[in-house]
Design goal:
The protein is of the alpha/beta class and about 240 residues long. The chain contains seven helices and eight strands, in the order αββαβαααβββββαα. The strands form two sheets. Strands 1, 2, 3, 4, 7 and 8 form a six-stranded mixed β-sheet that branches. A two-stranded antiparallel ribbon has the order 5-6. α2 crosses α6 (about 190-210). Residues about 5-20, about 125-130 and about 165-170 have low confidence and may be disordered.
Length: about 240
């Protein structure tokens, strides 16, 4: 009987320990995304729109305390973090206190490719063509997570998103598109962006909260990317 009580006690303790591991949610802020690609859909305001979309995705996971944009924007501009991704020496602790964020996430779109080709099919009605096209899109976002107290980059990773198909499919992203990106939601570009945002969210969740076996999965993806296995966008 004592052994059974001991087993139950150990099980309860183990459950409590695992619960506590998720109880301390990291406080995180997402800075304005930057663009170093030739993406035609990038225009003024898109950087903050992507920031908000990623913030929503992180918040919906339930594992993060996400700092609102209005608490970040002015401080980030003063620190010039949008350009450097680092906190100036001696001001790190203040950054954490002012923004309320323990970590700051920076994303830079470093590559975007899109190809569209006719498949020879489709329908035509009164001169309006419907379908008959095949589109593919690829986006790469370089992500850095900065400790707001020390200014150090805790970790970084290149995240990729891909999509293919026509413009009527719905992407993987759970949130909605709006603003300057509103008209991209059901396009290959929108689906690639959505896929990248989901991947970034899952990567941060893995590295900062869940840890364990999921890290090896992302390491394998990174190794595959580094080995040059990225497929060029080619259409038949």
């Amino acid at each position: 009987m004592k052994k059974s009580y001991l087993a139950v006690a150990l099980a309860v303790a183990g459950f409590a320990a695992s619960t506590c591991a998720f109880a301390e949610k990291p406080s995180i802020g997402v800075a304005e995304f930057k663009n170093e690609s030739s993406a035609g859909w990038w225009r003024g305001g898109v950087g903050w729109e992507l920031s908000g979309m990623l913030s929503n995705e992180l918040s919906s996971s339930g594992h993060f305390r996400v700092v609102e944009r209005n608490k970040l924007e002015k401080v980030l501009e003063e620190q010039n973090l949008a350009a450097s991704g680092r906190v100036r020496q001696g001001t790190g602790a203040k950054m954490g206190q002012v923004t309320g964020a323990d970590y700051l996430v920076f994303g830079t779109v470093t590559s975007y490719e899109e190809n569209t080709a006719s498949t020879g099919g489709g329908l035509s009605f009164r001169g309006i063509s419907l379908g008959g096209k095949k589109s593919e899109a690829y986006i790469r976002v370089d992500v850095r997570v900065v400790n707001s107290s020390t200014g150090d980059i805790e970790f970084s990773r290149a995240i990729e998103g891909r999509s293919s198909g026509g413009g009527m499919s719905v992407g993987l992203y759970r949130g909605g598109f709006g603003g300057n990106l509103g008209h991209e939601e059901n396009t290959p570009a929108g689906k690639a962006i959505g896929a990248a945002l989901v991947e970034i969210s899952e990567y941060l969740d893995c590295k900062m909260v869940v840890r364990g076996s999921c890290e090896s999965e992302f390491d394998a993806k990174e190794q595959k990317r580094r080995s040059g296995d990225k497929k060029a966008l080619k259409l038949d």
